[in-house]
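Let us work through a complete example step by step.
Step 1: write down the sequence.
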Amino acid sequence: MALFEFELSPVERIAPWEKPPAQHLSWFALTDGAFHMPVGSDVLFRYSPAILAHWHVDEASRDATYQVAAFARDALGSAAAGAAPLPRFFEDIICDAALLRRLRRLSMEVLQASRQHKERDYVAVVG
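Step 2: predict the structure and record it as tokens.
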């Protein structure tokens, strides 16, 4: 299954950028289109029937529209960071259950001590 699905706008319907005589169509402008992202049983970047009815537009306008190249760059850039392997340091911590329990206990102790200090500081200032 594709990460996202899209349909490019027909070239005839893409308005040139700028005003005459500087009008032009770059490759980026030509990536104008509609896109959505299937995620399980949901679809992201798709307007609900209620909002389409509110806007008085038909079902054909249900997908988000923009330059698909920009959406692809952002979506694929995010996916790459999420799929990157963890640094070895974090891998070692996660694989050591005893160390993880110790870190969790220590962080709870620090949190509790911090709360006690805040309460004492509040009493000292207000009380």
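Step 3: interpret the result. The longest strand covers residues 32-39.
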